[in-house]
Amino acid sequence: MTNPYGSWTGGALTARSFLKPHHVARSVFHPTWIPGSLDPSVDALKKARVIAGAVAAFGVYTFVEGGFAFDEMLDNAATACVVLLFVTPLTVGVMLHIWRRSGAGTVGQLRGPLVRSLKLLLLFIGSALGTVLVFRMGDAFGVLGSMVSGLLGLWMALFVIAGAYRISGNFFGTAAVHRCLPPLLATVTTWLMAIPDLITGDLHGLGLAMGVVFILGAPVTVTGIALLEMGRLRGRYGIRLAAHPATLPPTPAPAPPPPSYAPNGFVPPQGNPYGPPSGSPYAPPTRNPYGSAPQGSPYASGPRPPYSPPPPHHPR
């Protein structure tokens, strides 16, 4: 599968775009080759999954313990990058094995979108780890170096946070491989980030009951929303997770938005407003629907002379 959309960003980035890191993140971490949502309901479920995933990523216990620790956020970001680096390829590899064993298609058919998704994964992980490194090494370059590294780190932090929002929705563009991969990967990732705390008993000082509720709350929520999203894809569009992407039915293209000139979404009738009316203007007049009129009546059909002939002259 080749990239039919041209460049990665579609030419959306300019020099002024770098003044707004969230614009750069939108172009870089949601490139043009990622397919759009099929309908508003699936898109709403995806947004709900993103919110629940954000709760899992930052940890509710941070706020419960009475504050937000910036160093802890950096540690969590580095840990999340390591988890993503191993979990995402492993999960996709398992699904590739299942699809290949079904005999409906080959892995080679998916090489294009798989390579692009891997590039997006490595790009995000590199950006996140680079941001952590800039903040960690900020104090090693003196006062001026600390100011420069602080400004650079702030820009990169905003860039990575905005990118994380985009990544949580498309999950490294894996929807280009299979529409069900993003909710599956979100579920697997949130569980793998929560289970170690339960196994080691590290409840972050919340107590057993509160620790279990707040640690498992986000993974359970993400799982429920992901199952609902995959159920909607299966019920409405026939997209099943276990089916090879080559066997899936073609998905309808998203409906284009109404023209900008249309008020309140009303689209006027199309066509040339200055053209002739329907039907030939030179067609003969239609028949009188009320029947034929008496001879000499002005309403009689058919041609009439412009004036009546004079009566004949009778000599006296």
Key phrases:
316 residues, mainly alpha, 8 helices
What does the model show?
- This protein has helices at 21-29, 40-58, 61-64, 70-101, 111-136, 142-170, 181-200, 208-237.
- The longest helix is centred in the first third of the chain and has 32 residues, at 70-101.
- Helix 2 runs parallel beside helix 7 (181-200), helix 5 packs antiparallel against helix 6 and helix 7 runs antiparallel to helix 8 (208-237).
- The protein has 316 residues and is an all-alpha fold.
Question: What topology emerges from the helices and strands here?
Answer:
Elements: H1 21-29, H2 40-58, H3 61-64, H4 70-101, H5 111-136, H6 142-170, H7 181-200, H8 208-237
- Strand % is under 5%
Helix residue percentage: 40-55%
Order of helices and strands: HHHHHHHH
The class by helix and strand makeup works out as mainly alpha
Question: Which term fits the overall shape?
Answer: globular
What is the CA–CA distance across the termini? 107 Å
| Unreliable stretches covering 5 or more consecutive residues | 1-5, 278-283, 288-294, 296-301
Rg, nearest Å? 34 Å
Number of separate helices: 8
Q: Count the beta strands.
A: 0
Largest sheet: none
Q: pLDDT average, as an integer?
A: 75
